[in-house]
Amino acid sequence: MRIPTLVAAFMAIALLAAAPIAHADDEAVFPKLIKDKAPSVVVVKIVLAVKFSGMGQSGEREVNAEASGIVVDSSGLIMLPGGSLDAALNIPPQMRSQISIQSIPTSLRVIFPGDTREYDAVLGAKDSKLGLAFILVKDLAEKKVTPVDMANAAEPKVGQTLFGVSRLDQGFDYAPIVSRTKVAGSVTKPRSMWVIQGAGGQVGKPMYDANGAITGIVVSQEGVGETTSSRPFLLPLKVAKPVVANALKKSKAELDRILEEEEEAAAEAADEKGDEKKDEPKKDDEKKDGE
Hints:
This protein is an alpha+beta fold. It has helices at 2-18, 26-37, 237-290, and strands at 41-54, 57-73, 77-81, 100-111, 119-127, 132-137, 161-167, 176-187, 193-197, 206-208, 214-222, 230-236.
């Protein structure tokens, strides 16, 4: 009789180990984070023109993708993972060093919560060292956006649980969801950052404590050395703020440049159209003379 009892006990322990750990405060924390932080989380529809060459082959392809982004300034500056603007084309890892891939965004459209309109945006800045990209909406019109509140900040601690807010894709109605990560340690090289667990999909997202205070931005940092790789870290807010400010400056300058080019192109097109109209009477006169 003891054997079945022991088996049952071991099965119970195994089931407990496999079950997700419940946190008593989830029922209070999750809904509040969704309510307070989801308005800053947007969806970016991306179209990439991808050129690839190598191993005796070359070609071009158009790739469509979506990414969850964060509003970081009321002007319409959106932060998103830099990897969302790169296309791997399902190339096996062992072959990637032999193939050159260039991804150029040809269309960036932002969908804000509760708004069916898609707002055109331009790529303003990209930080390859941190794995971040910043896009700026071309024209918000009268749209009021909700940027992340960076004034409500807190310093994280090792062992602390932090939370991120993102969105599912279009097939699931862009529903906001909460993820959880834990601060596992800290590093000083190549910069001071917090080591976090289980945040691979949170690059470009803020992390909040249980009270909703922002603790930093998740980045994809490459280590020092030839054999190292990139992994997610939590960039302290005091370091992240200047990164966002610099990106805003670059993005505004890039948008001004693009708008100026568009105005010049429109003016040239109008001049050409005007010249065509001026030539039309001359053609009629020539026809009459011929008659």
